[in-house]
Amino acid sequence: MRLLKLIPDNTNIDFLRWRNVAIAFSALLMAASIALIAVKGLNFGVDFEGGQVIRVHFQQPPSLDNLREQVGGLGLGEPNIQEFGGPQEVAIRLPLPEGGEEGANAAASKVRTSLEQQYSGVRIDAVDTVSGKVSGELVRDGALALLLSAIGIVIYIWIRFEWQFGVGALFSLFHDVTLTLGFFALTQMEFDLNVVAALLTLIGYSLNDTIVIYDRVRENLRKYRKMDITSLLNLSMNETLSRTFATNFAMLLALGSLMLLGPDVIQSFTTALLISVIVGTYSTVYIAAPWLIWLKVNSDSFVPKEAPAAERVKNYNEGFER
Asked: Exposed e or buried b for every residue in 50-71, given b needs 16+ CB within 10 A?
């Protein structure tokens, strides 16, 4: 029985033909992402900012303005009210109440009583409270985890291959994380610990294709000693294209199902992973691979240089005399 081939064996796509246009486009997106993060910032969840989030289900979609005015009149601080997954699901974020756990419970009860008096059939689905100290620790630990994981992977690639490959992987990784953060700054989706977990997954997944292609590039550098580096990179990517397509298509099916059918609480996690599949595949082709060209990698880059003939004769004579 013949195996199904998603990509024909004779596929020969000139991926790097548009590398200069692609790198200019990527630079523009990265600049826009950094500007969005600086101007709009990220919509940090209660995990990072501290405070209290009450998730409420209404029988009918409420007016957010009226709801904001009602909750704001309870004396619990300025509320931040957003839809959470649908028009009937609302997240009410409040400043951290005083009095510790007792104060948090009292604030949640006060909100519940007020809503039940105004809206019939209202239901409190969850109440999350995080102190300012804990949120600060989470910010520090999350940033440290991202930094250490990125450094560890780049060091591995540096040792496993050569320093040029490590540089390409580092810029590819920076590109992927920056664009993902820029998307969250643009859409103002909640940035919480789920997104940090997704970014850690992104760091591993976005470099997955890069390592596979880099390994094939290294093999082909030994096999095709006279081939131009651009042609060799295109060859390597075409040879691994079937594997890349199958892996990413399977990931997109799984993530698409989670986006459509999964619970709202993991929407930010699923969205970040979906972006990582798309952006990570793109950066492997148009960020990681072109860096090998710009760093002057060729078939002789990693071959030990032979000593001049006179030096070889001298070493031989010295060895013979001993």
From this structure: bbbbbbbbbeeebeeeebbebb
CATH annotation of 51-130: 3.30.70.3400
| CA-wise closest residue to 93 among 40, 135, 61 | 135
The three-state secondary structure class of 123 is: strand
The domain spans of the chain are 15-42+135-294, 51-130
| Helix/strand/coil for 60 | coil
β-pairing verdict for 89-94 and 51-57: antiparallel
> Which CATH architecture does the domain made up of 15-42+135-294 adopt?
Up-down Bundle (1.20)
- Global pTM? 0.71
Give, for all 322 residues of the chain, the pLDDT tens digit. Answer: 455 566 666 777 888 888 889 889 999 999 999 999 999 888 877 667 667 788 888 888 888 888 888 888 877 777 777 777 677 888 887 777 666 667 777 878 888 888 888 888 888 887 777 665 555 676 677 778 777 877 787 787 777 777 788 888 888 888 888 998 899 899 888 787 778 878 877 777 777 778 888 888 888 888 887 788 888 888 888 888 888 888 888 888 888 888 787 766 677 888 888 888 888 888 888 888 888 888 887 766 655 555 444 444 444 454 444 4
Q: Please count the other Cβ atoms lying within 10 Å of the Cβ belonging to residue 74.
A: 14
Burial of 247 (0-12, 13-18, 19+ CB in 10 A): middle
| Measured CA angle at 142 (ends 139, 147), to 5 deg | 120
